[in-house]
Write a structure and sequence with these properties.
The complex is a heterodimer of chains A (about 325) and B (about 300).
Chain A (H helix, E strand, L loop, with lengths): L1 H24 L1 H28 L2 E2 L7 E2 L3 H8 L2 H33 L3 H21 L2 H5 L7 H8 L13 H14 L4 H11 L3 H9 L5 H29 L3 H7 L11 H11 L3 H26 L5
Antiparallel strand pairs in A: 1-2
Helix pairs in contact in A: 2-14, 4-5, 4-8, 4-9, 4-11, 4-13, 8-12, 9-11, 11-14, 13-14
Chain B lengths: L1 H18 L7 H30 L2 H4 L14 H12 L4 H32 L5 H11 L8 H11 L6 H8 L2 H11 L4 H9 L4 H12 L1 H16 L15 H9 L6 H30 L7
The chains are: A mainly alpha (about 325), B mainly alpha (about 300).
Chain lengths: ~325, ~300
């Protein structure tokens, strides 16, 4: 046992020395990396680290942070009913729009792929436009779904005789979440979609011919045995982007349903974080929410990666 | 004999289908799938077209009952009204444009240079810590603005950048997506290109600026798209409070929230805000797709 530990340390020391030597030789690399690394550390790593630190404190910006242990997490999970509403909503939105948006991205990219070049160029713009323009434009849905008879959806339904009185789409808790989900789905063909379109173009044609000769019968078999395995790296990238989008929802719900929304029916975890961080200035509590959210996102990402590894086998 | 002939025709048929590159497709399936695609495309475009229509409607049509989809008498009044309103604010319209253009141009340029430098060494050299660093960047792709928002505010406050352009520009330099796409694209560059230049006596910086950068133009275009999108839509409401430093989008949205009387102008604002990112994307589409082809994440 002792010998084993000694050997382990010798090995470690050796590895470390090799690394040091390598590092000395590649000084240039570090010089090139340094500007980005410093900024990246300052604006991406440090915030997460401080967020974790503040989550164990009571901090209201004016006074120095006071260490209170796990109190934030305990009250978050056991006492904060609105947080649980937020968790439920975020979870619902993530579970429905995340996979649906992800699958839609792939499906559309796959269907577009076989179109002639000029149609493909137009189709990519058509499907991608909502996600780039969306941030400034989804406010249009609050006109479409306006609560009075001037709203397009209400007017249409009343004309068809389905309803008699206008429905308060964005103030009635029953309709808020579904409408938000529609809007989020509308905007969900983002970077992942582009990555899929480009990836599909890059697949070697001869593989399909070989597959045909080997007895691949229809487009679905072709998809599962040839296309998907070739697309694995892009699928991973798309998954990362989809998770980020699905758990980060808050702009859409806040713009459409108001902040705060009726009965907190459209509250998400990020809205809750926004509320405590930027309206009530309870930074410690908000940091605890951020930390939890972050943990869930990483776990979810790992789970999906291990799922994607099995594709096409 | 006949069997052989039959086989031959089957073979011929197969070859013909392969030449058409669609051996595994049925007509019926094609028809329904593309019909579905067309329907979805119409649904996707509908809100955007509706936005444009709304901006072209005169005020009385915006409040007509029953509401219409197409404008009956399209006008550009809403746009000219918008310019009048913007012209009357005590901070001149050109100042807002300058703010947005300055932030977007400086932020994008800096991001390209800094991220490309880092991507170059990460993609082309093997040095201790490089892989780990890149993995951390991939994880950072998942950080949404709100998760890091609070500590970021504290950090920027500590640096004394609140209410300056730098509060938006400098953090944009370190956006993970740019480094990620750039590194993946640079991996596709042949190492021999770099080695040849080195044998000819070029310094590392010369290799980077003279050889690598001109060869990654598609990736640069893509980074520009992402950066412009990000910075153009950045209202920066948390960091900037002086009216004369606000961005165009922020100013436009102030008009937009002006209530019923500004309904027409608000619709015009939506069009102005959405048109710029879409136009930039259309201009660079083919190059963006070339870059995205190498965006895959290997494990």
């Amino acid at each position: 046992m002792k010998e084993y530990i000694q050997k382990y340390f010798i090995l470690r020391k050796h590895n470390f020395q090799v690394a040091c030597k390598k590092a000395k030789r590649s000084k240039m690399c570090y010089l090139f990396l340094a500007p980005y690394a410093i900024l990246f550390f300052a604006f991406n790593i440090l915030p997460v680290a401080t967020s974790i630190f503040f989550s164990f404190t009571y901090y209201n910006v004016l006074e120095a942070p006071k260490f209170i242990g796990l109190q934030n997490y305990i009250s978050l999970i056991l006492q904060d009913d609105i947080f649980l509403v937020g968790v439920k909503n975020t979870f619902l939105i993530a579970v429905i729009t995340g996979p649906l948006g992800y699958i839609a991205s792939f499906l559309f990219a796959w269907l577009i792929n076989e179109l002639p070049r000029w149609i493909r160029t137009i189709a990519v713009v058509v499907f991608y436009a909502p996600s780039i323009a969306g941030t400034g434009v989804y406010i249009i849905f609050s006109i479409l779904f306006r609560g009075d008879a001037y709203g397009q959806v209400n007017a249409l339904l009343m004309e068809m005789g389905i309803i008699n009185t206008p429905i308060l789409w964005l103030t009635n808790p029953d309709y808020m979440l579904p409408i938000c989900m529609i809007v989020i789905l509308w905007m969900s063909l983002g970077s992942g979609f582009l990555s899929f379109v480009a990836g599909l173009q890059g697949i070697d044609r001869s593989q399909y011919e070989a597959g045909y000769m080997d007895g691949v019968k229809n487009r679905w078999q072709e998809l599962w045995y040839i296309t998907l395995p070739n697309m694995k790296p892009m699928l991973m990238f798309g998954a990362v982007m989809a998770i980020t989008g699905a758990f980060g929802v808050c702009d859409v719900t806040m713009t459409l349903c108001g902040y705060p929304s009726t009965d907190y029916a459209a509250r998400t975890v990020v809205t809750h974080l926004f509320d405590y961080g930027f309206s009530r200035f309870e930074m410690g509590y908000a940091s605890a929410i951020a930390t939890l959210l972050f943990l869930v996102m990483i776990l979810c990402n790992k789970a999906i990666q291990s799922m994607l590894r099995r594709v096409g086998t | 004999m006949s069997k052989k002939k039959k086989e031959e025709t089957v073979q011929k048929h197969k070859l013909f289908k392969i030449k058409k590159r669609k051996p595994n497709r049925s007509r019926v399936g094609d028809f329904f799938l593309y019909l579905f695609l067309l329907l979805m495309a119409i649904l996707m475009v509908f809100p955007l077209v509706f936005t444009v229509n709304n901006a072209l409607k005169p005020l009385d049509e915006l409040f007509k009952f029953p509401p219409s989809f197409w404008p009956n008498n399209p006008t550009t009044d809403n746009f000219s009204d918008l310019f009048v309103t913007m012209g009357k604010s005590w901070v001149t319209f050109s100042r807002y444009i300058f703010n947005t253009v300055f932030i977007t141009v400086v932020g994008t340029l800096g991001h390209i240079i800094i991220a490309s430098m880092a991507a170059f060494v990460l993609a082309k050299y093997d040095f201790p810590g490089g892989k780990t660093f890149f993995n951390v960047v991939v994880v950072a792709l998942m950080f949404t603005g709100y998760v890091t928002g609070i500590p970021n505010y504290l950090i920027i406050n500590g640096l004394g950048w609140i209410d300056t352009y730098w509060a938006i520009i400098i953090p944009a330099f370190a956006a993970p997506i740019g480094l990620f796409l750039m590194k993946q694209f640079m991996e596709g560059l042949p190492m021999s290109l770099i080695e040849a230049a080195k044998i000819d006596g070029a310094s590392e910086w010369r290799v980077f600026s003279g050889i690598v950068m001109p060869n990654v133009k598609p990736a640069i275009m893509t980074i520009i798209i992402y950066s412009v999108q990000n910075l153009w839509n950045n209202r920066a409401a948390t960091y900037i409070y002086s009216e004369e430093k606000k961005t165009l989008v922020y100013a436009l949205q102030q008009v937009q929230s002006g209530g019923i009387a500004r309904t027409g102008q608000a619709a015009a604002v939506s069009v102005v805000v959405m048109i710029v990112p879409i136009a930039v994307f259309i201009a660079a589409e083919s190059q963006v797709l070339e870059t995205m082809a190498s965006s895959g994440l290997k494990d």
